Amino acid sequence: MSEKCLTFLRSKMDEKELAKLQALDNSYLIDFISTYVELCNPDSVFVRTDSADDVSYIRNRSVSLGEEQKLALDGQTIHFDGGSDQARDKKNTKYLLKAGQDLGKHINSTDREKGLVEITGYLRAIMKGKQMYVCFFCLGPLDSEFSILAVQITDSAYVSHSEDILYRPGYEQFKKNKGVKEFFKFVHSAGQLDGTISKNIDKRRVYIDLEDKKVYSVNTQYAGNTVGLKKLALRLAINKASREGWLAEHMFVMGIDDEKGEKFYFCGAYPSMCGKTSTAMLKGEAIIGDDIAYLRKREGEVFAVNVERGIFGIIKDVNSKDDAILFKILNGANEVIFSNILIDEAGVPYWIGKDGLLPHKGTNYSGSWVPGKTDVSGQEIPPSHKNARYTIRLKSLENLDANLENPAGVVVKGLIYGGRDSDTSVPVEASFSWQHGIITKAAILESETTAATLGQEGVRVFNPMSNIDFLSITMAKYIEMNLDFAKGLTQAPLIFSVNYFLGDKDGKFLNRMQDKRVWLKWIRLMADGQVGALKAATGLIPKYDDLRKLFEDVLGKGYTEADYVTQFTLRIPQNLAKIERVRNIYKEAKGISRILFDELDAQEVRLKEFQKQFGDYVSPLKLT
Ligand code: SPV
Ligand code: MN
Question: Which domains are present in the chain?
Fold first, then answer.
């Protein structure tokens, strides 16, 4: 470290903190940190190593500053984000691109120079009066080919505390990898506060600089915008993966066993609020991760890891019946950060869909709350926000798989894609091949919007691989890297689609929540050919007898042929319309592989042949 840099840092941090930085012996890293100490101008700097003392310093600080409040049960706290800071801000999240760079119209971007000037302006002295926390993390298991190191600078103890729950510690990893320059960088400030809430929401910005592997986030607190290691790192990772030949995906990783107890691992990509966490947490199965996975090839097989070690999950409708394990954690003396739920005077947490009755008054993200309270626009404020969440460690779960920290990852036998689709796809289906699956299950995924992002809900949007919100390369390149990923594999994982949201014409769901346990078991059995399937125009669907047996074995329930027919009828007009919609989107994008159009055309031809033979709606009983 240069003398000048050292003198400057000494003015901001005591010897103890400085020594922690010096011990890393990495001038590139220290230059990066001191640049933002100078720009953000905090009153002091705390360096968070992996030590228990440092971790508890952050936890205590979050409580003493009021960023989190203690609840009745030991270890539990509540954090509130501002009323209009309750979800990811897609509009103000942008890539900083140089002139001539173009990621396509589905990816939000702004001119790099202009963006840097704007964000630097916002960051200047933004931490005055506050402490800066410098934290080190490792994405993926430690000491693994999957590991990516990261530094988070923030003035929010809540963000830093959340990251400790959600990510593996990285300080010792930085020490081991002395002089490392290849790491992700995140700079966050909640900005000026009104009490504990970010005040300048109009100046909320999340800017991603792919060139510097750096993300800036200002004037926001909602974790999806601020916890750099989560979706902001996913964006950087997709870009890195595209250069290095692996995949960074919005996917759970879970183990599913067969009757003999032989476990296979699967990854599943569903857009936010479409059942991804509840699938990873399915009764009787084993969770490795619920949100983000890295996938790599090794000796002809695909391996996956969970990038995280905790869950930042949606709390709405979590109840003792459907989510017994989780419910126990959320109602015990465990380290849990609740966000944007309702608490009563005694510090007991409540949310929409929790067992029992809600209290008639309490405190939520709008302050003190009573039923019927309205916001400035006259809208009724719900007791807890639809996107209210809990943050927990995976290791507290009894259904955790033993391989969470395995540096090698687990062998992946199948990929599952699911969206919120009320009228088109069947509940579960396998693709004919890797290519057919990547195009007709993953690349044409659509989903109806939810409260996980700001904006109108229930609108059908295109969301390839459920990763569109996080793409940092063109769609053309992303699809190509997914197609190419099968090259060199001895046997590519099977590809499946699921749809938990199929409804009848009155909008009533055709399936119950627990039915997904059966779909997942069928997927497990398909993965090693324990069941056969029927050939539809869109893929391979389950046979009635196999599902009847699974409903009986897994859920102890009957399954009528009539239900089977309603659920698994091939809806040809809807499937044709979907191909048309998605093909038009891809036609407008640049450089999309011919393979995509060929697969879509082939599917269209198959659908039309079925239509000629069987009519618009094809009962599965007609298939062989
Ligand atoms: C999602 O919305 O997909 C999440 C939560 O997993 S967020 O951190 O907001 O991305
Ligand atoms: Mn997610």
Answer: 3-65+92-244 (3.40.449.10), 247-308+403-622 (3.90.228.20), 312-396 (2.170.8.10)
